Amino acid sequence: MITKIRKRDGREAAFNIEKIVNAISKATRAAGEEDAGKAFSLAEKVIECLEKASDRKIPGVEEIQDVVETVLIEAGYIRTAKEYILYRAERTRVREMNMRLMKIYEDLTFKEARDNDIKRENANIDGDTAMGTMLRYGSEGAKQFYEMFVLKPEHAKAHREGDIHIHDLDFLTLTTTCCQIDIEKLFNGGFGTGHGFLREPNDIQSYSALACIAIQSNQNDQHGGQSIPNFDYGMAPGVAKTFVKLYRQNLLKSLELLTGDRELEAKIKCIFLEIQQKQELLPKLERMEEYFGIEAEYLSSIVENKADIHKAQEFAAEKAGTETDRNTYQAMEAFVHNLNTMHSRAGAQIPFSSVNYGMDTSLEGRMVVKNLLLATEAGLGNGETPIFPIHIFKVKEGVNYNPGEPNYDLFKLACRVSAKRLFPNFSFQDAPYNLKYYIPGKPETEIAYMGCRTRVVGNVYDPSREIINGRGNLSFTTINLPRLALRSNKNINTFFEELDRKIKLVVDQLLERFEIQAQKKVKNFPFLMGQGIWLDSDRLGWEDEIREVLRHGTLSMGFIGLAECLKALTGEHHGESNEAQELGLNIISHMRRRMDEASQKYQMNFTLLATPAEGLSGRFIKMDREIYGSIEGITDREYYTNSFHIPVYFHIGAFEKISLEAPYHELTNAGHITYVELDGDPLQNLEAFEKIIRCMKEAGIGFGAVNHPVDRDPVCGYTGIIGDECPKCGRKEDDDKFERIRRITGYLVGTLDRFNDAKKAEERDRVKHFLT
What we know:
By secondary structure, the protein is α/β, with parallel strands linked by helices. Helices cover 50% and strands 10% of the residues. It contains 24 helices and 19 strands. The strands form five sheets. Strands 4-7-8-9-10-15-14 form a seven-stranded mixed β-sheet. Strands 3-11-12-13 form a four-stranded mixed β-sheet. Strand 16 (710-712) and strand 17 form a beta hairpin. The longest helix is centred in the middle third of the chain and has 34 residues, at 306-339. The chain is elongated and about 120 Å long. The N and C termini lie far apart (76 Å). The relative contact order is 0.08. The model is unreliable at 752-760 and 763-772 (pLDDT under 50).
């Protein structure tokens, strides 16, 4: 007689026939074969079978369940047996996921970030802090919940098994990815953050501070990056207001000194107001002569000597110009410092911030860009390289590309700063697929990128609104290309058939996620939608659904490991043979066509992304190595190569790399980037650095950057390339580690012990490349 059972954890418990009866009853009920009396007799049959088979051993839970299945089938209860088997499988899945989640929580609780990949998953979260760990608790729990109860089973399975990767799964039901913030529109009349109203800023310091607040506030509504596409245009009014204020202050002081009249202030302020109202004129950094003449006429009523007036005006303008420049530098310095110290999301994460600039040719806009670059070049308080914001300098013929153009000096300065600090990156407005959207005089049509490489401009939903401002990505999902190639066993037709199946799956998953997002209301995004950041959201009420305005955003399919995919299909990657390059372009062209077809079918913006893989490059290859083993050139490293890049370990000339990667930029309309790796210190050869940027522009690159080591000795302050010892003081690395900044996928990340394994491996390959 059975009196005990053995549970899954090895503990023994009292045997209870009622549990078997209840399980059978639930299955018969689900199958429409419910019979309470029959359930009990079937349970007795189960016990009879167990007693015969157990041979006086205590039966385990799994053994009992196996017998239940057998008894149901032999008794002819086929539908009931099927329901029981499905229920049992679901309970097993839930149990395993709960056990996995508890193990994750245990590691998060008791392991330090250097020993835990999950704590290091995001480069700008300190996983060792209380808030950083708490964020990971919530993130991992959310992922498990969505995988179990929200995702379609086929989507969850594909993600779990590594065919695809659903990015930011922890935010699946909560929000969207990123947005380009139009600060000109936002600052006009002021805005609110949910805890009070901020009036329109009146000087460059306030503009700088509110730009940081806008980025921080929007970051709390989204899980991805926040970008300002028109930073120079948006900050220029702050410079203009600052100049007006300083000019008037200096004019008043100089007139008081020249005339000896200490009672002029009230009279002159009235004159300033009258000129502004009647003449609609303000003093400006440029074209002051017209203003001087009008102002002098008004001032002559209280100051007799016209020479004194002109002398005072000249002095005030020159002094105000110098002071405005200094104030602008301080404001840009504060902007950079703030974005490297301020936190969002429970105080544990620095906002992912990007700024685009370079096209504003006004003196005010130029002053902003110059001082932002100089503040970045100077570094943080101890000379550290700023991680944020990511700078993107917009390159355009006729504006800043050639000598004699209005902003050419800023392009030269951008090259110098990038050679020292890795930023700015460079976007190329003249690339044909960017230029076709550009309308002179309309900054909202100038291509801007998120720092991670995301690009949003085309608009199938509303072709009349093919602009940058107020738009962003809704979500993206990446396909594991090497997996498909390995599975196809070098059969190209089989590969494309499998690729089409995965593309169809991803489109379905993106639509499913959109349906969840579309049911959200304005109140769920108090800043993004409530303050009119997102395009057309200012037309909605607090309780309105955001479905229609979300259609301005993009749904993106990404890919990773084109190089390893080609290696698996042909034996060579696209850096090694023309045939592999041709196949690579065919694969990515095919994926782009499928996205364009989905766009037309659903009248939504389906786009193709050259995925910024981060930790995903390591996740996929680990899973594939378990299936296929270590295959040379494919699964024998610790990471897959990012998107369409030529592998960093492959020795290739900079210009050849640019020419091979350039065609992929036009195909990946959701975003892309090409890097060139330099050895040595590029500051020693700025001409060569600029030549690389020019090569990118002429080759048709959309977004590019130059990688080079940026190291710093925190003891002596030396910044440059450091090997085993500091070139300045000769100190070898000890407890005071050298700070090593590297670019990974678009963002800069810090010292190597903060990288995950895949990032460390990629960095090692880069270092080898530098040294050779």
